[in-house]
Amino acid sequence: MGTIISPSVLSADFSNLERDVKLLNESNADWIHIDIMDGQFVPNISFGLPVMKAIHTHAQKPLDVHLMIATPDDYLEDFKNAGAEILTVHYEACPHLHRTLQRIKTLGMKTGVALNPHTPIDLLKNIIQDIDLVLIMSVNPGFGGQKFIPETLNKVRELKTLINNSGSSTLIEIDGGVNLETGKKLVDAGADALVAGSFVFGSDNPKETITQLSTL
């Protein structure tokens, strides 16, 4: 299986979201990445449930939803109802992470845990079996188009070792500064899935760019 590609609609044309979602439907993208920001957990606001529901209406790929919000536990069922198939919460925002993950599973979604650049991998060692996907932030969350943090590669290697040693089937996803160069390094380090926003939607041929990323 090739690299899983989850283009982020944060970099899409918000005045033409239906068009851009249909473009992703017709591409080799595996998932559609939805960044939800509340202006509290991160210093930016993206869009919320009504826009996500509209995206879900047109999407033919699984919605890979990344909650960058201060109180994710208050909205888990809402995002399930809005169409999330993978729901990723931040380690830093969940004081009772195991409980949060169990609730996500009970609602019928895949569980994801995101780690900010400063958050160490070993904090997941006692819970890795309960996580379907770990999203490593390779930029500080909140804005698209940022420069890739090189230390991410070491975190990917460390996480891959933890996953292998635990016998879990957790996937490793990376978000931030992904392009063909950084993407290749990340896949070589052990990443399974790549989120790409500005690199895809800012290219001359987004579909071809997605295909190139998927073959890394």
Automatic annotation (TrEMBL):
The entry's function note states:
Catalyzes the reversible epimerization of D-ribulose 5-phosphate to D-xylulose 5-phosphate.
Q: PROSITE patterns annotated for this entry?
A: RIBUL_P_3_EPIMER_1, RIBUL_P_3_EPIMER_2
Question: Which family does the record assign?
Answer: Belongs to the ribulose-phosphate 3-epimerase family.
Give the UniProt keywords, A-Z.
Carbohydrate metabolism, Cobalt, Isomerase, Manganese, Metal-binding, Zinc
Which CDD domains does its entry note? RPE
Q: Does the keyword Manganese apply?
A: yes
Against Gene3D superfamilies, the record matches this protein to: Aldolase class I
Pathway assignment: Carbohydrate degradation
Indicate whether Zinc-finger appears among the record's keywords. no
Entry's InterPro entries?
Aldolase_TIM (IPR013785), Ribul_P_3_epim (IPR026019), Ribul_P_3_epim-like (IPR000056), RibuloseP-bd_barrel (IPR011060)
EC class (word): isomerase
| Gene behind this protein | rpe
Binding site residues for substrate: 8, 66, 142-145, 175-177, 197-198
Protein name per Swiss-Prot or TrEMBL: Ribulose-phosphate 3-epimerase
